Amino acid sequence: MQPVDFMYGTAWKEGATEDCVVAALAAGFRAIDTANQRKHYYEEGVGRGIARSGVPRRELFVQSKFTFRDGQDHRLPYDPRAPIREQVAQSYASSLQHLRVDRLDSYVLHGPSQREGLGPDDREAWRAMEAVGAGALGISNVTARQLRELLEFASVRPRFVQNRCYAQLGWDAEIRAICRAEGLTYQGFSLLTANRHAVARLGALAGTYGVQPAQIVFRFAQQVGMLPLTGTTDPRHMREDLAIGAFTLTADEVAMIERAG
């Protein structure tokens, strides 16, 4: 498949998930992010949407996640009494079934089991993830310390880091710096919803290019090396998001947005 530069996120869509995935793929998205966490995602709906779309599997980048028990509700994709390594294997197998694929292009640890550093459960989960046979591995909702610890012990290094990206924190500047130094791809989510004030200040710049402020944010993200996620449910916004390659922000404009927090 072609290199991925934009990803469609499927969180918080519930019964609309299938139709949203169909619309996103019809608009031109070819990278889909989900998780085997029924609390916030409907992975089976993603699988049905992919099947309904008619887009060949070889054209798609499909990413899902393993979520620890504390991040789940009662609808678990694994036996909570099983060791962590078995929970990972069960969750991965369940994801393959939900998504109707025989391999994930990326498998992400949805978040460490503790707030500070990495614990034994995180290490056990990562070792199990290394064994499932996914195309690449990643970690989400991670601090700089946790990412450095992972890079030190991982036999299969993460290729992706997916974080909520706040303008007020320099658009996650510290984590992005580690990613640049280590050759990792930073996936940024909540680029709009976490930064409403910063986005609102981009109206004039958007007018200069004849686009929407959201398009400015996503183009900025791409130009500073992020792989942005969008979760829009509006087909028009999907098409607008994918059209951002039609313009390029100047270095001064990029620097201005980086200071927008």
Written overview of the protein:
The chain is of the alpha/beta class. The chain has a domain at 7-158: NADP-dependent oxidoreductase domain (TIM Barrel, Alpha-Beta Barrel), CATH 3.20.20.100. The chain is built from eleven helices and eight strands. The chain has helices at residues 17-27, 43-53, 84-99, 120-131, 144-153, 173-182, 196-200, 203-209, 213-223, 235-242, 251-258, and strands spanning 7-9, 31-33, 61-66, 106-109, 137-140, 160-164, 185-189, 226-230. Strands 1-2-3-4-5-6-7-8 form an eight-stranded parallel β-barrel, surrounded by four helices. β5, α5 and β6 form a beta-alpha-beta unit. α1 (17-27) packs across α2 (43-53), α2 (43-53) packs parallel to α3 (84-99) and α3 crosses α4.
Mean pLDDT: 97
Unreliable runs:
none
CATH superfamily of one domain: NADP-dependent oxidoreductase domain
Proportion of residues in extended strands: 5-15%
Order the strands across the largest sheet as they lie in space.
1-2-3-4-5-6-7-8
Radius of gyration, whole Å: 18 Å
Shape: globular
* CATH topology descriptor of one domain: TIM Barrel
Number of strands: 8
Report the oligomer.
single chain
What's the number of helices? 11
What's the end-to-end separation, in Å?
35 Å
Question: Helix-strand pattern, N to C?
Answer: EHEHEHEHEHEHEHHHEHH
List keywords for this structure.
261 residues; alpha/beta; TIM Barrel; eight-stranded parallel beta barrel; 11 helices; 8 strands; 13% strand; globular
What is the element layout, followed by pairings?
Elements: E1 7-9, H1 17-27, E2 31-33, H2 43-53, E3 61-66, H3 84-99, E4 106-109, H4 120-131, E5 137-140, H5 144-153, E6 160-164, H6 173-182, E7 185-189, H7 196-200, H8 203-209, H9 213-223, E8 226-230, H10 235-242, H11 251-258
Parallel strand pairs: 1-2, 1-8, 2-3, 3-4, 4-5, 5-6, 6-7, 7-8
Helix pairs in contact: 1-2, 1-10, 2-3, 3-4
